[in-house]
Design brief:
By secondary structure, the protein is mainly beta. It has one helix and five strands. The longest helix has 6 residues.
């Protein structure tokens, strides 16, 4: 299965195989003290790192290793 990423350098959508994808979470604390979590998939394509933000449900479905 391949995942579609947007390559900013070439300005086009590219398919990255699932073997080249890792999952990661970005956490930050707001001024009010709440913790916000963003879920992302990171892939490698032509030596460049690509990032795609996804919802938690899609993030949980992936079998890719956690970064």
């Amino acid at each position: 299965m391949a995942v579609s990423f947007y390559d900013v350098k070439t300005r086009q959508s590219v398919e990255v195989p699932e073997s080249d994808i890792t999952r990661t979470k970005y956490e930050r604390t707001t001024k009010e003290g709440k913790v916000q979590v963003r879920y992302a998939l990171r892939g490698k394509y032509d030596g460049r790192n690509l990032t795609k933000f996804v919802g938690q449900a899609d993030w949980d479905k992936m079998d890719a290793p956690v970064e």
